[in-house]
Specification:
It is built from twelve helices and twelve strands. Helix content is 55%, strand content 15%.
Length: 468
């Protein structure tokens, strides 16, 4: 482009010089025709040749000047092209001071300012990306056409590798409620709130899709799986507690009303009714105590007094303290042996654990006539076992048996006075110790409840031959 401009300017300059020479020749020629003597003709010839010589000198000089200017403007064009391609380090070389130097200096200053601005923009964009990636929520920005403009790492983990910039979100996400919220934000330009339950297996997300001022939409997905599970657990807990309390209360109310309505109840009837009332009141009291115990062990403020305790001593104390209850039921409480290893345990909490497990074995394994309590050493922990020899538990119940209010045989549990909270309390106490708990059983072969406690970590003893 610059070469064409300067070629045109150079051509115009040449034409002007030629026109000037022709005019001078014409004037001199007419002047000579009206003037006598050959001196004037000689003078005209000299003017003609002097004009040609001047033209011969001017042409190369003009070409050289035009070439220099064209070269510098070509450098400016290359500089502008590099800036347009995103190279903010491009600069013009300032060789000398002339008419083009101020323009080149101004372009260098503009490029430097643009470089700083783009660096700040890139730094802000990077910080924003880091902040969005560190969020717990999944975030995705969409264009007005519904293609992905940007997504954070959480969204990419949820949707998989299919989600990427420039690809329509419909190809990566199939949840109907999520897509409906996105359509509402893109088409109706309004905030849409929904719930996505098929985006990831077993997870539920609250969806917020908001339109962006310049078009498109921003979608934020908040994982509410834990919240919904907690709400469901709370509803079930309230329903179970209400049911467990309503049954004895209804029984107590019925027998009390019967006694009130009968002006002269017989002594035997009164004693029978009062016995039933006492039984249900005891059941309610037991339920209340277990609820308070469960609330205590589930509380974040629940503290254990951990101290080194011998596994063999824990097993012996459990058998000694509960032996009387078991003897009265006709069941024999046996020791399965235990290693004399120190474990970290709260003795009072362990008494509650063994008490609930032995009482559970007594209720449901009484037919086996014996209960065995023992322990054995594992790699870095000790495994304790409470085993009964009763009818056993079906395999489908083993995973849920430690849930609150879960009963294998509801009728038998109510008959024996169980609240359905004993194993849940045991689970929380064992986990608070840093241990594990599980159950094993086969129908007809009894049930075994196992839990572990960590061994006391002892410092290595220095060698007798070491130099001090």
């Amino acid at each position: 482009m610059t070469s064409k401009v300067f070629l045109k300017l150079l051509g115009l300059f040449v034409l002007l010089l030629v026109f000037h020479t022709l005019v001078m020749e014409l004037l001199f020629h007419r002047f000579v025709e009206h003037t006598a003597g050959g001196g004037l003709r000689a003078l005209g010839r000299e003017a003609f040749w002097s004009g040609l010589i001047a033209l011969g000198i001017a042409l190369p000089l003009a070409a050289w000047v035009a070439g220099r200017i064209s070269t510098r403007l070509q450098h400016v064009m290359d500089f502008a092209r590099r800036i347009a391609d995103g190279d903010m380090t491009a600069r013009l070389e300032l060789r000398k001071s002339d008419e083009l130097s101020p323009m080149e200096a101004a372009l260098n200053q503009t490029a430097e300012r643009l470089g700083k601005d783009f660096a700040e923009i890139e730094s802000g964009r990077h910080e924003l990306a880091v902040m969005l990636d560190s969020m717990q929520e999944a975030v995705v920005a969409l264009t007005p056409e519904g293609t992905v403009r940007w997504s954070n790492s959480v969204m990419q983990r949820i949707a998989g590798t299919q989600i990427r910039a420039g690809r329509s979100l419909v190809y990566s996400v199939r949840d109907p409620e999520l897509l409906a919220c996105i359509r509402g934000a893109l088409e109706r330009r309004e905030l849409c709130i929904g719930r996505a339950s098929t985006l990831a297996p077993g997870r539920v997300f609250e969806v917020n899709a908001a339109p962006l001022p310049l078009g498109g939409a921003l979608v934020v997905l908040h994982d509410v799986t834990g919240i919904e599970a907690a709400q469901k657990s709370r509803r079930e807990f309230v329903a179970n507690v209400s049911h467990e309390l309503r049954t004895p209360l209804t029984s107590i109310q019925g027998y009390v009303e019967t006694l009130i309505e009968d002006p002269n109840p017989g002594p035997e009837t009164t004693r029978e009714f009062l016995g039933v009332i006492l039984k249900n009141a005891t059941r309610m009291n037991r339920l209340t105590e277990d609820l308070l115990a469960l609330a205590s062990v589930e509380s974040p403020d629940y503290k254990l007094t951990l101290q080194p305790s011998r596994a063999s001593v824990l097993v012996k104390d459990a058998i000694d303290s509960l032996g009387g209850i078991v003897v009265d039921s006709g069941v024999k409480l046996q020791s399965g042996g235990a290693p004399d290893l120190p474990v970290m345990a709260d003795p009072d909490a362990m008494n509650q654990v063994f008490g609930n497990l032995i009482e559970n074995a007594l209720k449901y394994g009484k037919e086996g006539k014996r209960i065995r309590v023992g322990a054995r050493e594992l790699a870095s922990e000790v495994q304790f076992t409470v085993q009964d020899f009763g009818p056993g538990i079906s395999s489908e119940h083993l995973e849920r048996i430690f849930e609150r209010f879960y009963r294998v045989d509801k009728a038998r549990s109510r008959e024996s006075g169980g609240t359905g909270l004993g194993l849940a309390i045991v689970k929380h106490i064992v986990q608070a110790h840093g241990g594990r708990i599980w159950a094993e059983s086969e129908l007809g072969n009894g049930a075994s409840f196992h839990f572990t406690l960590p061994l006391v970590q002892t410092a290595p003893q220095p060698s007798a031959n070491s130099n001090g």
